[in-house]
Design goal:
By secondary structure, this protein is mainly alpha-helical. It has helices at residues 2-23, 30-37, 41-62, 89-102, 107-121, 127-139; strands at residues 67-71, 76-80. The chain is elongated.
Amino acid sequence: MITELNETKIAKDRLINMYATLAEGKALYKAQEAVKFNCSLRSIQRDIEDLRSFFANQSEITGAVQELIYDRKMNAYRLVPPLRNLLSNEETFAVLKILLESRSLTEAEMFPILQKLISCCVPADKQKQVNELIANEKFHYIEPRHKSKMLLKM
C-alpha cells in the first residue's frame, strides 16, 4: 500500500515536471526523461499520452488550442504553440536597443531590466548571442545628466 502511494506520487511528480518543461517552451526528449526519472521509455510514453489528453481537454474547455507534437527534426516532443511565447532575437534586440537609446534611466536601473528581458524573453541557447549584440551599446551607455532614479517616480 505504501509502495503504491509512493509510486503514484513519483508518477505525478514526473508528469508535473514534464508539463513544466513544455510550459517553458522547451523540448521533451523521451530518453532523457527516462534517465532523469529512472523509469522505462514506456512510462514516459504513457505520460506523454496523458499530457496530450490534458491539452486536448483544455482546448475544449478554454478554447485555447495547444497540441503536444513530435518534432522529427529535433527527435523530441514540443508544445505548439508554446505556453510561453518568446521574442525572437531580433525582436528582443530591437526592444533592448530602444530602451538603451532612450537614455532615460541610470545604469543601475537600466542594466538589470535589460538582463531580465534577455533571461525571460530569449531562449537560453540564444542569450549569449543577444548579450554580445548589446555589449557595445551597454559599454557606451550614457546616463541622464540628472543621475536621479526614475523608476520610482514613474
